[in-house]
Design a protein that fits this description.
With 62 residues, the chain is mainly α. Helices cover 65% and strands 0% of the residues. It has one domain.
Length: 62
Amino acid sequence: MPDITAVTANAYSMAEHEIITEEDLRYFLSIHPLELYTSLNQDFFKGTGVEKAANEYLAAKK
């Protein structure tokens, strides 16, 4: 993917056209990647701008 921002724009257009729900979009853009990257390394997002949100999600999931 030469331009990663195109992924977000294209994914959002699917929600705008009601091909997927807002919840599906949230899962696709945030929850799925978070679960993928933390499945083997719980500290994957440590020191990043999303560390707090990632830790809150993971704590709530337990």
